[in-house]
Amino acid sequence: MPITFKKSTLEDIETLLLLQKAAFQEDLEKYEDFESNPACETYEKLAENISK
After folding, report:
1. Which of 1, 10, 41, 50 is spaced 20 to 30 Å from 18 by Cα?
2. Over the stretch 6-43, which tens digit does the pLDDT of each residue have?
3. Helices 43-51 and 13-31 meet at what angle, rounded to 10?
4. Interior/surface letters 2-30, b for 16+ CB within 10 angstroms, e for the rest
5. What's the chain look like in SS3?
6. Cα–Cα distances in Å, from 12 out to 17, 32, 36, 43?
């Protein structure tokens, strides 16, 4: 099965946020790092990063 990469768009934000929260929730609970953990990233911050 080939793997392809594509640039994320603003249409992908909801899916990306769900994936980030699921992937990093355990670390957030363990380390309680609410400032830099990707599970805490906001919709607006992710939109800003995608737009760059």
Report:
1. 1
2. 999 999 999 999 999 999 999 999 999 999 999 999 99
3. 120
4. eeeeeeeeeeebeebbeebeeebeeeeee
5. CCCCCCCCCHHHHHHHHHHHHHHHHHHHHHHCCCCCCHHHCCHHHHHHHHHC
6. 9, 27, 21, 11
Does residue 41 contact residue 20 with C-beta atoms inside 8 Å? Answer: yes
d(CA 37, CA 31): 9
Question: At 47, which amino acid appears?
Answer: A
The backbone region for 9, taken as left when phi is positive above 0, alpha when psi lies in -120 to 50, beta otherwise, is: beta
